[in-house]
Write a structure and sequence with these properties.
Layout (H helix, E strand, L loop, with lengths): L2 E7 L4 H11 L5 E8 L5 H8 L4 E3 L8 H14 L4 E5 L7 H6 L4 E5 L14 H9 L4 E8 L9 E8 L6 H25 L7
Parallel strand pairs: 1-2, 1-4, 2-3, 4-5
Antiparallel strand pairs: 5-6, 6-7
């Protein structure tokens, strides 16, 4: 039986689109069931509309109390029979009710080789700038299970990307993003096949 995927995204949602495309192409035995964004103007919601996937803007604006927002996110995921939650550039910390409802079944992709260059405030361009500032020769991508601590949960997959001496944060970001799209789809496929076992 195909997995139902629920996406949480804040901005452009290109990783989400890569997963959706893989579902549509039959590369993933999964169904994009719902998209939730904390940003009502996000590209992710526009992509959801274009793909005719149910979408919801849920944020501090729609639910000022954090507990209410957490419960509404859970209810929305459950109402769409979600089995696996996919974070795709989601800039908010996952609430305790969501974590408890989907233990071990919320995954995230990070544009670096965790545990280095992770933690609160380390996302997107900031990661690439830190890699270049450190003079690192390689960076990469990590897919991991989400737990209560930023970028901390069990690592499911990693792939390295060489840092060129000519790299800027922008050129490095572009190459890393291409690997993100590939690795996310491949990791989800391995979860579906049972090759990768989620911790719960």
């Amino acid at each position: 039986m195909a997995l139902n995927l629920g996406f949480l995204a804040s901005h452009n949602g290109s990783n989400m689109q890569a997963v959706i495309d893989a579902c549509r192409a039959g590369r993933l035995d999964a169904n994009p069931a719902v998209v939730i964004s904390n940003n009502g103007d996000s590209g992710a919601l526009e992509r959801a509309r274009n793909e005719t996937i149910p979408w919801f803007h849920l944020s501090g604006r729609t639910h000022p109390e954090a507990e209410d927002l957490d419960r509404e996110i859970v209810d929305t995921l459950l109402n769409h029979d979600v089995n696996l939650v996919i974070l795709a550039g989601y800039m908010k910390k996952i609430g305790p009710v969501t974590l408890a409802t989907f233990p071990g079944h919320i995954i995230n992709i990070h544009p670096g080789l965790l545990p280095e260059y992770g933690g609160q405030g380390m996302y997107g361009r900031r990661v690439h700038e830190a890699v270049l500032a450190a003079g690192a020769r390689e960076t990469g991508v990590t897919v991991h299970v989400v737990d209560p601590i930023y970028d901390h949960g069990p690592i499911l997959a990693q792939k390295k990307v060489r840092v060129k001496t000519s790299d800027t944060a922008d050129t490095l970001a572009k190459r890393v993003l291409a690997v993100e799209h590939e690795l996310y789809v491949d990791t989800i496929a391995r979860v579906i096949s049972g090759e990768i076992k989620l911790p719960v």
